[in-house]
Amino acid sequence: MKLKARAKINLTLDVLHKRSDNYHEIEMIMQLVDLYDSLEIREGEGIEIVCSHPFVPTDEGNLVYKAAKSLQKYTGTKKGAKITIEKRIPVAAGLGGGSSDCATTLMGLNKFWKLNLSLEELAKLGKELGADVPFFIKGGTQLAKGIGEDLTLLPSLPPVWVVLAKPNLGVSTKEVYLGLEIDKITKRPNTQAMISAITEGNIKEVSNNLCNVLETVTLRRYSTVKILKDRITQLGACGTLMSGSGPTVFGLCSTYERALKIAKSLGTLAEEVFVTKTTDWSEINETN
């Protein structure tokens, strides 16, 4: 069984306050895009993980491994699997690659092992593995609240071309949140305006309402990210934003030709650049 684990971008990301459990209360709109890792599930003894990326663990530290073990524990199945991950989504980039691989594993093994669990059951298991794993189980365009697990499905965003650009640096999500001064944030997302723009299919207003409060930390600490974002804007993107805690920046484009021109013009500002598009795909997509 071959599956696609798609990436996400944040159209909005607001951090409201720090909770008593030390997590942050957030409100954000996430959007699935058609950049994906490829997962292959085969019969195997126990749980074996193979990954093309040298820095991704293949032991119990891998979310895919944890997903498989979680399903075994929840259902009592003794079945095993060999799961091969071909990485295309940049690692630690703000695009949710690890969480998407985890969610896709839950959905894939549910079918491969004939467990017949509902999406709600899978989402509940996913929440224990990562706050945004449930999003990747449900996909599409979603409003997320709480720590990211409280999801509301929004109307599908019309397909729009996206340039994804990751500079050659790593950003710690934990450090970004620790550096966030919530009481000093002056510009926050207008979530309702973004929802209205999405509902109307108005890409111009979607672009105008892009906002991520974590930029107040990452762009200040890493000038390369700010330079990259400014450059994508200068090259004619309809709107630009950092995804998640970064460092990946994306630009929304009205045409494929514009997106490709921007991608080819970034030069050494970005280590990895992709041209993709938004998608409302939210089911397992078997490639074979």
TrEMBL record:
The keyword Protein transport does not apply. It is an enzyme of class 2 (transferase). GO terms for molecular function: 4-(cytidine 5'-diphospho)-2-C-methyl-D-erythritol kinase activity; ATP binding. Residues 62-140 form the GHMP kinase N-terminal domain. This is 4-diphosphocytidyl-2-C-methyl-D-erythritol kinase. Its EC number is 2.7.1.148. Keywords: ATP-binding, Isoprene biosynthesis, Kinase, Nucleotide-binding, Transferase. Pfam families: GHMP_kinases_C (PF08544), GHMP_kinases_N (PF00288). HAMAP family: IspE. It catalyses: 4-CDP-2-C-methyl-D-erythritol + ATP = 4-CDP-2-C-methyl-D-erythritol 2-phosphate + ADP + H(+). It comes from the Bacteria. The active site is at 8, 132. Catalyzes the phosphorylation of the position 2 hydroxy group of 4-diphosphocytidyl-2C-methyl-D-erythritol. Pathway: Isoprenoid biosynthesis; isopentenyl diphosphate biosynthesis via DXP pathway; isopentenyl diphosphate from 1-deoxy-D-xylulose 5-phosphate: step 3/6. Gene3D superfamilies: 3.30.230.10, GHMP kinase, C-terminal domain. Belongs to the GHMP kinase family. IspE subfamily. The keyword Heme does not apply. Residues 194-266 form the GHMP kinase C-terminal domain. InterPro entries: GHMP_kinase_C_dom, GHMP_kinase_C_sf, GHMP_kinase_N_dom, IspE, Ribosomal_Su5_D2-typ_SF, Ribsml_uS5_D2-typ_fold_subgr. GO terms for biological process: isopentenyl diphosphate biosynthetic process, methylerythritol 4-phosphate pathway; terpenoid biosynthetic process.
